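Field reference: "sequence" (input) and "structure" (output). Example, DUF2187 domain-containing protein:
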Amino acid sequence: MKKADVKLGQIVGAKSEEELKHPFEGKVEKIYENSALLAITSYDPEDEASVSELNNKMVINFKKLKKVKKPANTKTASTNDVKISKVEPTKNAKDKKDSDK
């Protein structure tokens, strides 16, 4: 791929013979002069230990990137998205709250 073809937030396919044994997909987080920082979003389960060591991020040269039509159905790396849900208090917490009154 060329630098002009790479956009922030885009999901791209990539290959890195040094770090990962199999191709992977990642979301473009930052664009440099000759490479891009990818947040690894999809990878082969065999590469799980390496992806974890890399903190789910990797800098890849534009020459090793390719456009992805549809995201792969392989192992997905965790993201930094935080989901919040309401938790009902336990019986002990309710009893303590009532005794504080």
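The longest helix spans residues 91-99.
The two ends are 66 Å apart (CA to CA).
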